[in-house]
Design a protein that fits this description.
Oligomer: heterotrimer
Order of helices and strands of chain B: HHHHHHHHHHH
Helix content of chain A: 25-40%
Structural class of chain A: alpha/beta
Protein name (chain C): ABC transporter permease
CATH topology of one domain in chain A: Rossmann fold
Largest interface: B-C, 64 and 77 residues
Number of helices of chain A: 13
CATH topology of the largest domain in chain B: MetI-like fold
Number of helices of chain B: 11
Subcellular location (chain C): Cell membrane
Radius of gyration of chain B: 22 Å
Number of strands of chain B: 0
Chains: A alpha/beta (about 350), B mainly alpha (about 325), C mainly alpha (about 300)
Shape of chain A: globular
Organism (chain C): Streptomyces bugieae
Shape of chain B: elongated
Largest sheet of chain A: 8 strands, mixed
CATH class of the largest domain in chain B: Mainly Alpha
Keywords (chain C): Cell membrane, Membrane, Transmembrane, Transmembrane helix, Transport
Strand order of the largest sheet of chain A: 6-7-8-3-9-10-12-11
CATH class of one domain in chain A: Alpha Beta
Strand content of chain A: 15-25%
CATH architecture of one domain in chain A: 3-Layer(aba) Sandwich
Helix content of chain B: 55-70%
InterPro entries (chain C): BPD_transp_1_N (IPR045621), MetI-like (IPR000515), MetI-like_sf (IPR035906)
Chain lengths: ~350, ~325, ~300
């Protein structure tokens, strides 16, 4: 598994290189700064987990990368999205559309609403081949059946004309995965792919996704708020807060010793068997409103370590060890405290 | 069973009546469990200070020019319906055949009708019949409809089934036809038979909306919780369920008011609604229609007044619906 | 599906009986058909009694209704005021109204859906606001007002269309009346389409379609429209019955000898067989249209088909 290309500058191996991306939403209540200078990279075959609470900008970043932001009101106001070295934001709409679905695909959280209720799953799968490759109706249908078999849907041939509501939640999510895989993309963005599923099914779907990713050496961006999902499958983690990345690190390093108080808060708030009997820690307060992000470090109102400097100076991303970075003035203290 | 969220109620509006508009859109409001505060922003967009549905709606409405304008027009109409003498000093019945069908002249800006009566005065006095019919019919239909629909939705069972079928029967009768048949045998010259007829055919529309929102509200967790805590039926209905059902009913009723006024005018135009000596825009338009080529002003002024009145109520209802149902914005 | 149709048909029966009985009650119990026959003359009591017996009018209302319905199902609708049989009257009137309704429905679909799609896709922009406002204004102008206005402007001033329609009612002469009849529904279809499009445009499956890299026109026609038009199509279905029954005003303005015209004459002359006969057929058309709509709905939305 390639695990290079993060932390350091340059390095031509990145499949996706997001640089300093900013996204705004113009709403009735003012401008919401949903994404404020996010950078991350994904190499072929690598899994990047983007972790954050709802409203942290993790999904919006993904939509901006895919080019499916709701605009208006959403708008990319700065940065670059380099895919195979080409900046997608400068491409013409038609060029971008050809990449979408074919070279980079997306899996959504709730397959029931993300699949079209009035079209059969077969038609929705076949559509990928028909539109992008101009395949004949009959052949597209055959390939749809193959895809369904590949993601483990029993009796695929018999069920190809069924409608989304006739499948179970897990099967529906498999169909979503099949749709994303259809044209052999280089990058898959999975936005909370298992959140809407039962716990037992979650693991199956996650395993399927990881297996297919390995097999096809795709880059995978896994967007989640669930630390438990991340640990097994991710190579790298990027933690987002208020539209910024506050910490990136290889997954095990981050679990061992977080370098940002927010990450530490997240880790401490999950129950663990080996900590039985200890109190769980909740992060006090609420995430800030995106129309009024606090000055300085956006996390300072909730941070146990906050000092005066945090209220005035926004922390840069400090390099905090091999392949890791933290946007905290006191990353060292945090790291030491955790060890 | 398919329950298309399309208004079956849209019946009989074919022409003249405009009942269709009221429902379909309000019914989509009824489908929603309880109108949530507006949070239709981008993912993670901030929700402003939490406000109640009503104060939030009021906050929006005051800033909505459509609402302000239509409310002003309605206040004006109500005032002249009560005191027409305020702006029209003449007598709506005084006829001067020598001036029949003459156009605008000093002191008589809208000209004269075919019997030589002052069109301006008649247009002003015509507001009273329209507003009376509109307000009384709406009040009647809203009260009857929400009472029956609310109880049916709350208690369910055979009463509910019976009411639904009964409503179907009334929907099965084309409104204008029913009005013609029913009212052609009435000889009273007051507004009450017309009001009674509109209530008779109008209540099912309200009752469906009320029933729907009560059924939805009944399933809300807090209602279940209140029931589990031992709240009686009366308390449940009044404290927990009714407040949820009020908003959709108000929206339907406001828009219906406009359509009822149009319906009254249509019936009067066909000779089955109000009867002289009541001054009614519908009757005047009907009389004037024979002379549309020679003296169009006799038709245009009452027609304009009627259209503006209906428009004001429909716009008001539309604005209220938008305010109470932010999702549709 | 078959069982569903049967159940719906059974449900229609009480509604049919209720609606027709209500009309029957209004006409026969509230009015006096015999007195109406004689107009202003006072009828000779013996003759009146004879007529009453002939017409079954001396029986209790329930029996009268049953007798009447029995006659109807044998194809005997009675005699109209001008001595024609009501059946003959229907044979001449219904095709005319059917054509008028057809024109109205086609206009509703073409204009209403197009406007609705355009404004729904441009929600909140200038064109959307204007279409919304315009539709409210159209809805607010009662048909008998808009009818005279359009007749005056197009038929008289500009002479683009015939101000009144010939007895054969050819399609081209029905364009203007069809527009008048459709106007309110058209505005409503526009609003319904607009709301539906705007709501569905934010749906997750539309985002999926975008993420699949489909061209914009395909996202709109295959994914967005297909879902958004379900409520619109069902509305137009119910509207068929409503328009046919509601054409009285339009037919009166343009002097079209259709269902509404004959009914209006029947009501004016208190000719009970004409009124009850026509209304019975209209109620039937209306109920069948509703059934059709329910079935259409199941065809369009697989979630209901397999429920």
């Amino acid at each position: 598994m390639t695990n290079d290309g993060h932390g350091g500058e340059g390095g031509g191996t990145a499949l996706l290189d997001v640089r300093d991306l900013t996204v705004e939403f113009r709403t009735r209540d003012g401008v919401a700064h949903a994404v404020n200078g996010v950078s991350y990279r994904v190499a072929p075959g690598e899994t990047l987990a983007v972790l954050g609470e709802s409203g942290s900008g993790k999904s919006v970043t993904a939509q901006a990368v895919m080019g499916i932001l709701d605009s208006p009101p959403g708008r990319v106001t700065g940065g670059q999205v380099l895919f195979h070295g080409r900046d997608l934001l400068t491409l013409r709409r038609e060029e971008r559309r050809r990449i979408r679905g074919a070279k980079m695909a997306m899996i959504f959280q709730d397959a029931l609403s993300a699949l079209n209720p009035v079209l059969s799953v077969g038609a929705q799968l076949a559509e990928m081949f028909r539109v992008h490759e101009g395949t004949s109706r009959k052949e597209a249908r055959g390939r749809a059946v193959e895809l369904m078999e590949r993601v483990g849907i029993p009796a695929a041939r018999a069920r190809v004309d069924d409608y989304p509501h006739q499948f179970s939640g897990g099967m529906r999510q498999r169909i979503m995965i099949a749709m994303a895989l259809a044209l052999g993309p280089d990058l898959i963005i999975a936005d909370e792919p298992t959140t809407a599923l039962d716990v037992t099914v979650q693991a199956q779907v996650m395993d399927l996704l990881a297996e297919l990713q390995r097999e096809l050496t795709m880059g995978l961006i896994l967007i989640t708020h669930d630390l438990g999902v991340v640990a097994d499958v991710a190579d790298t983690i990027a933690v987002m807060y208020a539209g910024r990345i506050v910490e990136t690190a290889p997954v095990h390093a981050l679990y061992r010793a977080p370098a940002h108080p927010y990450t530490r808060g997240l880790l401490e708030s999950i129950p663990r068997l080996d900590h039985k009997g200890r109190r769980l820690h909740a992060i006090k307060g609420l995430p800030p409103s995106l129309t009024a992000i606090p000055p300085g470090c956006p996390f300072h109102p909730r941070c146990p370590l906050a000092q005066d400097i945090c209220r005035t100076d926004p922390p840069p991303l400090y390099e905090a060890g091999p392949g890791r970075a933290s946007a905290c003035h006191f990353w060292k203290e945090t790291l030491d405290g955790a060890r | 069973m398919p329950d298309p969220y399309v208004p079956k109620e849209a019946i009989g509006h074919g022409d003249g009546g405009t009942a269709a508009l009221a429902i379909g859109e309000a019914e989509s409001l009824e489908r929603r469990p309880s109108a949530a505060p507006p949070s239709a922003g981008p993912p993670g967009a901030p929700v402003g200070k939490p406000r109640s549905l009503w104060s939030d709606a009021w906050h929006d409405l005051r800033r909505n020019p459509v609402f302000v304008l239509s409310a002003l027009v309605i206040v004006f109409l109500v005032v002249i319906a009560i005191w027409p003498q305020l702006i029209a000093t003449g007598n709506p019945y005084r006829a001067d055949l020598a001036k029949a069908q003459q156009g605008s002249q000093p002191g008589h800006p809208f000209g004269f009708d075919t019997q030589g009566r002052d069109v301006y005065t008649r247009v002003v006095y015509g507001a009273r019949a329209s507003i009376t019919v509109g307000v009384c019919a709406t009040a009647g239909a809203a009260l009857l409809g929400s009472l029956l629909g609310g109880l049916a939705g709350f208690f369910g069972g055979w009463g509910d089934t019976l009411l639904s079928r009964l409503a179907d029967i009334f929907f099965g009768i084309p409104v204008i036809l029913g009005g013609l048949v029913f009212l052609s045998v009435v000889t009273s010259t007051t507004v009450w038979p017309v009001v009674g007829f509109i209530v008779l055919l109008g209540w099912p529309q309200v009752s469906r909306i009320a029933r729907g929102s009560v059924v939805t509200a009944k399933q809300n967790d807090y209602v279940q919780a209140a029931r589990a805590l031992g709240a009686g039926n009366g308390r449940l209905l009044l404290r927990h369920i009714a407040p949820n059902a009020v908003a959709p009913v108000i929206v339907v009723a406001t828009i219906a008011l406009g359509t009822y006024i149009a319906l009254e005018a249509t019936l009067s135009y066909l000779g089955a609604g109000l009867k002289p000596p009541t001054v009614s825009w519908g009757i005047d338009i009907s009389t004037a229609s024979a002379y549309i080529r020679s003296a169009p002003h006799m038709l245009l002024w009452p027609a304009g007044a009627l259209s503006i009145t209906v428009l004001a109520f429909i716009m008001l209802g539309d604005a209220v619906r938008d305010a109470l149902d932010p999702k549709l914005r | 599906m078959g069982r569903y149709v049967v159940r719906r048909l059974l449900q229609m029966i009480p509604v049919f009986i209720g609606s027709t009985f209500l009309i029957f009650f209004m006409v026969y119990a509230l009015g006096d058909p015999v007195a109406a026959m004689f107009g202003d003359r006072a009828p000779d009591p013996a003759t009146a009694a004879q007529i009453r017996r002939d017409l079954y009018l001396d029986q209790p209302l329930g029996k009268q209704y049953l007798h009447y319905m029995g006659q109807i199902f044998q194809g005997n609708f009675g005699t109209a005021f001008n001595g024609q049989s009501v059946t003959e009257l229907m044979a001449s009137a219904f095709p005319v109204t059917l054509r008028l309704t057809l024109v109205a429905i086609v206009l509703e679909m073409l204009v209403g859906i197009t406007l609705g799609v355009f404004s729904g896709l441009r929600r909140g922009r200038g064109i959307d606001t204007s279409v919304l406002l315009l539709s409210l204004i159209v809805v607010s102008v009662p048909t008998f007002v808009s009818g005279y206005l359009l007749q005056f402007v197009f038929g008289v001033r500009w002479a683009w269309a015939a101000p009144s329609v010939a007895p054969e009612a050819p399609l081209n002469e029905l364009l203007l009346p069809g527009l008048v009849l459709a106007l309110v529904s058209l505005a409503y279809v526009t609003r319904l389409t607009r709301t539906s499009i705007a709501e569905n445009a934010r749906a997750d499956y539309v985002r999926t379609a975008l993420a699949k890299g489909l061209p914009r026109h395909r996202v709109i026609t295959r994914h967005l429209l297909r879902n958004s038009l379900i409520p619109v199509v069902t509305f137009i279905g119910t509207d068929i019955g409503a328009l046919m029954g509601g054409a009285i005003v339009t037919e009166r303005i343009f002097n079209i000898h259709g269902v509404g015209f004959q009914l209006y004459q029947g009501i004016l002359r208190q000719n009970s067989p004409t009124v009850v006969g026509f209304v019975t057929i209209l109620v039937l058309v209306f109920l069948l249209a509703n059934l059709l709509v329910d079935l259409l709905y199941a065809v369009l939305d697989p979630r209901i088909r397999y429920a």
